[in-house]
Amino acid sequence: MREMMNMILVLTALTAFSGGLLATVQSGTAVQIENQVLKFQKAPAIAEIFPDATNDPLSERFNIPTDEGELQIFPGILADGSKAIAFETKGVGFGGPIGLMVGINLGTDQIIKARVTTHAETPGIGSRAKSDLSFVDQFTGKGLNANFALKGNNGEIDAMSGATVTSKGVSIAAIQAKELYQKLKPEIMKQIK
After folding, report:
1. 3-state secondary structure of 102
2. Could you tell me the residue ranges of all domains in the chain?
3. Nearest-CA neighbor of 132 among 149, 157, 115?
4. H or E segment to which residue 180 belongs
5. Distance from C-alpha of 100 to C-alpha of 109, rounded to nearest angstrom
6. Lateral strand order in the sheet of 110-118
7. pLDDT in tens, 131-152
8. Which residue of 17, 99, 122, 141 is most buried, as measured by CB atoms within 10 A?
């Protein structure tokens, strides 16, 4: 009985030590990970969405609280002087989460562009959502009254051939972006300079 208690005590101590070590490593690397995600995933998408921005959307970013946490907003001032924002939402594809960065003109409530930021989709099939821009370019210029569902679900978006699950994941991310924007626009307008 005494041996069993010693084993439980040793196992508890090792588990507590390991958990503390993991927590320390995670908190010590969280800022570095966030900077890498910003630099290599979000920044390239924002550069494509706002190619002629007269400001720096990355340095002027801000967060808005939502029901699920915080939404990071990237404000852009377009070449014609109009204001826009970009933010990322997630859908679920065949391989897991798909990040979609959506840029919206604040004056017209139209999508400027949408770009896939992250995915774990099958190379050459679902991965085309990021590399073949003809799919995500279907969102460009659409107003927020458009139906972002796939045509197979009575929407306006053509699915990629052979990648229906990926297409649906991107479509769901776009629908989520539309709903978040409509819900948060008053708060966004307060934060925009």
Report:
1. strand
2. 46-191
3. 115
4. helix 164-191
5. 18
6. 62-66, 69-77, 83-92, 97-105, 110-118
7. 989 999 999 999 999 999 999 9
8. 99
- How does residue 193 score in pLDDT terms, banded at 50, 70 and 90? low
The total number of residues shown for the chain amounts to 193
- Which phi and psi angles does 53 have, rounded to 5°? -60, 140
Distances (CA, A) of 127 to 7, 95, 120: 49, 10, 8
The pair of structure tokens assigned to 53 is 């921005």
Q: Is 9 helix (H, G, I), strand (E, B) or coil?
A: helix
Question: Mean pLDDT throughout 68-81?
Answer: 94
Can you list the positions of beta strands (E) in 32-109?
62-66, 69-77, 83-92, 97-105
